[in-house]
Each structure stands twice: as C-alpha cells, then as structure tokens.
Amino acid sequence: MLHKAKLLQELEAVSTQLFLDLSPQIKIAYQTWQQMVADTELSSKIAACQMPWPLPLWQGKLDATFTYKSYDKPYQLLSVDGSQVYPDKHQGTSCFLINIGTVELQYGTGKKGIVLQSTPRVFTDLSQELAIEQASSADLVNAKREELELQTGLEYALQLQQSAFPVLFLFDGSLIFWHLASKEQQLKQHFLNKYMKILQACADNKMWIAGYISLPKSKDLIALARTVLCNFNSASKAYEVIGNLTDTALTHFFLKVGERTTVFKSQSPIVQSYPAEVAPYFFYFNIGAETVRIEVPYYLAKDEEALSGMCSLILDQVQKGRGFPVSLAEAHEQAVVKGPDREFFYYLIEKLGIAQNKSLTLSQKSKKKRSVVV
Questions:
Q1: Residue 225: inside a domain
Q2: Whole-angstrom Cα distance, residue 233 to residue 226?
Q3: What burial class does residue 79 get, using C-beta atoms within 10 Å of its C-beta: 0-12 exposed, 13-18 middle, 19+ buried?
Q4: 335-363 pLDDT, tens per residue?
Q5: Among 253, 296, 181, which residue's Cα sits nearest to residue 36?
Q6: How many domains does the chain have?
Q7: Residues 309 and 71 sit within 8 Å (Cβ to Cβ)
Q8: Smallest Cα–Cα separation from 234: which of 33, 49, 359?
Q9: 8 Å CB contact between 169 and 207
Q10: 123 lies in a domain?
Q11: What single DSSP character describes residue 57?
C-alpha cells in the first residue's frame, strides 16, 4: 500500500529537480543555433570531424522547412502494436505471450472504414530455440515482439498495396533498434538479420513505412550544437551548458505548424549494421499539438513525393485524433494485455495441465498472492 503522506514528502524533497528552469540553457541554444545556421560550411565541417558522440548528416540548409496540409484524397492506413506477458518463474512455466494488435483504416476508398484485430502468440523458451543462454528472458521477448510487429505490418500492408489507393504503415516508435544496441552479439545479430530482411522487403515493394515518436527525447541536433559550442574540441566542457535540452528545443526556434525540418541521416553506432537502402533517416514535424520525430528508411528519405504523401497522411491522422494518430491509439488498445488478461492466460495454462493430468509447480510467493491470510 502506498503511504501518500510520505510520498508527498519525497516529491517535495526533489521538486527543484523535477521542475528545472531551462530558460538560460534555451537562450544559449538559440544563440548557438543562429551561429550554426549562418555557417554555410557547417555540414562539411561536421562530416569531416571526429567527436565522441554521433553527429547526424544532412544536405542543404540546416534550417530548411517544408510545409504540408492534411491529405484530402482517399487513402489507407495501417498501424501495428504489440504487448507481452513475460515468462514468470513463480507461475511454474517458461512460456510467454505476445499479443499483436493491428488497425486498418480506410478513408474514401469504398472499403470498410475500420478493421481491428488482435492476434495472440504463445512461445516456449526462446533461449533454447536460439541457443542463447545468457540473454535475459525479457530481452528475448522484447526482440521477438518487435520482429512480430514488423512482420505483421509487412504482410498486412502488402495486401493493402493491391488496391490503387496509397497505404502508409505507421509504426509506433523508432526504426532505430536501440533495444539491441547494448545486447550480446549473438542476440543482436540474430534479430538484426530478421529486422533487416523485413525492412528490405518493404524497400523492394516501395512500401511507405514510418516510425512515429511522440514527445521525442532525441539529442541529435543538440549534438551538433554541442560540437559548435566546444569549437569542435571534445576536451572542452563548454557544451555542458545545454546538457538538459533535447532537439525540440532547437526546432522550436524555426518550425511552424504543418512544417517539417530537412531530413537527417542518423549516425548512431547501431545504424552501421543497416544496409544502405534501409538505413534510418529522420526529421522533425510540427503537427500543432507537439513536434514529433518521424523516422523513415533511406529509400523513402530520398523520395520527395513519398515524403510529401506520408507527411500529409500523418497530419490528417493527427487532426482526426486530436493530437495523436488515430491508428496508433487504436493499435495500442488492440495490443495491450491488462491484468485480468494476464491472469486468464495463466488460468488457461493451469486448465490445460489438469486436462493432461499434469500440474505446474507454483512458487510460494504466487500461492500467497492467491490467498492472503492475516
């Protein structure tokens, strides 16, 4: 039980850290941004320098903007999300559940307006299947969930592409697979190979796919500002004066509603494992309610017509969803596994065991939760 009075005391003790005054940092960031924009050779300097942090690359003007209006023609939109029940040793089984939710939206196409689906998948011990002994079960489940989200989206979108209307596969989250970056090599390579195969299939079919990141905490543009602040000398600590800011602090200076930034190429270490055609690029997009980060593979980043269509579709989805894409919100609802669903999952396992004259060995902790005695 939560002791509310003590919680209030704890929050009051850290309140100055919860609500920082960032105005001095923002002022310095603005001055630095003006200096960056005025330097016509900045992109070549950035490409040539070596810093201990990754620096994004771009072409053209750093503060270039592109304006869009919401899409007003028929289109199709697909979103996929996943949720999971991790293996629980206290339940006496190593199997786990991954639930994939899909949402198909049709606008003006003459087809059924909305199709909602939820597909549960049950797995036994993946570490045995992959011959990976040291990876945690949570890491394996998370990596497998991402694979199923991408694979399901690919298969569904290929069906929708048979229609004459444009289709966008809008993915909730990053197309830079950060969750694998720090994992052991065998796990990392196994799932990267799977992800790259799916992304390559998207490229082969010229599929519109975009990763949508709400309230982004990325610091790629801040990394550029840090580099300028320390005058390309990483030994200098001058960059620390903007250490609490994220990229949207910079885009706020020049990005209006309905506008996106130029397209940047991510240089994060994990990206070096991507084939060139599907390497992730990103831009920031002011949708009105917030500035979001959109990530796309290279084959789309270089296609201005595709970018224009996708941005217009995203803007229309955000307006229909009053600040957040309708499809992503609905996909989450289809995917989420709540507490009662989790209990039902284990109830079914127990019931199957009884039918086969077998039983699970529950931990004392699990038994105690089922019947608390005072």
A1: yes
A2: 10
A3: buried
A4: 998 888 787 877 787 777 767 765 555 44
A5: 253
A6: 1
A7: yes
A8: 49
A9: yes
A10: yes
A11: B
